[in-house]
Amino acid sequence: MKYENIVKAKFLARPNRFEADVDLNGQIERVHVKNTGRCKELLIKGAEVWLTAPGTPGRKTTYDLVAVRKPSTGVLFNIDSQAPNKVVKEWLATQGFDKVIPEHTYGSSRIDFYMERETAQGTKRFLMEVKGCTLEIDGTGYFPDAPTERGVKHIRELIGAREAGYEAILAFVIQMEGVNRVLAHVTTHPEFGEAMEDARKAGVKVLFLTTKVRPDTLMIDEEIFE
Predict the structure, then answer these.
(1) pTM (2 decimals)?
(2) Which residues does 174 contact at the CB level (< 8 Å), separation at least 6?
(3) Mean pLDDT across the stretch 60-73?
(4) Which of 55, 88, 108, 121 is most buried per CB count within 10 Å?
(5) Which CATH architecture has domain 83-225?
């Protein structure tokens, strides 16, 4: 996944979840933050950030903030919450599936991807829910960085799908380099950790997708099943 245009700026402040103030070429610019998570360890005054201008008519802000260099380590993070699904869609197209359908309705939820693969034994059905990991502590990824009842609901749907005969996958796109696993951030949302543990016991596969991160690019590098 590649952004069509990218410019560098300096982070100043985040007045609310959806917006940030940055210094862009000496001018203060209010931009949209494409991540509603807390990102407190990333969005620190003075941090290097990268912006893209989608060019959508009628927007309140010209730019989206999509990447930041973590001040404490110098590691570059993509924090665009829409990027994980985009890169997974690109990746799934190379994985030999006969059918890939995004935003598939299952139960009372919309699961990120439904896939089919024809085998000698018949059609094998898959459901995959994708989560983007932007929280790193001491070289390990954690999810979520803010409570997510929706995330718990989707894991419960995967458990039900597995019991119904689907191959069910919970995939974490790790949006920084140097990290190859993700743990449930139970101090933030204990119920998410409980749901993940129940999913493992039910046979839901947990997949970690490492990435190559550049200011203008996010690409899946390696797949690691837990």
Answers:
(1) 0.96
(2) 133, 141, 180, 182, 208, 209, 210, 211
(3) 97
(4) 88
(5) 3-Layer(aba) Sandwich (3.40)
